[in-house]
Amino acid sequence: MEKLERAIKSIKVLECPTGDIKSRVRAILKEHQIANNTEITVRRDHRLDKNGARGYNAKITRDNGLDIAILAVSGMDDYVAKVIDVQLCQ
Question: Quick check: 61 pLDDT over 80?
């Protein structure tokens, strides 16, 4: 669980080009040894959108599986996105 907590902390401070969020989240989860690329799916999830923030869902199929909800807002030019919330879904 300690690895997962560190990965979530890394995702919480993520700022990157808007189009790179999915690949960056996947890379963070892989880097923290949560799962490998074939076990991680990150997708845009409109159901998670909240107060102008875009929702993303990271699904890890390893073991019992994990779902991580991520909210990110884009800057004025829609180029840079900043993660504002990360929640582990049970």
Answer: yes
* Total domain count, the chain: 1
Tokens of 54: 């875009």
Q: Structure tokens of 10?
A: 């890394």
Please give the single-letter amino acid code of residue 65. G
- Residue 76, amino acid: M
Domain that holds residue 35: 2-89
In whole angstroms, what is the distance from residue 10 CA to residue 84 CA? 12
CATH classification at residue 18: 3.10.450
Given strand 54-60, what is the order of strands in its sheet? Answer: 15-17, 80-89, 66-74, 54-60, 40-44
Instruction: Give percent of the chain above pLDDT 90.
Output: 83
Q: Any idea of the CA torsion for 43, 44, 50, 53, to the nearest 10 degrees?
A: 110
- 3-class SS of residue 79: coil
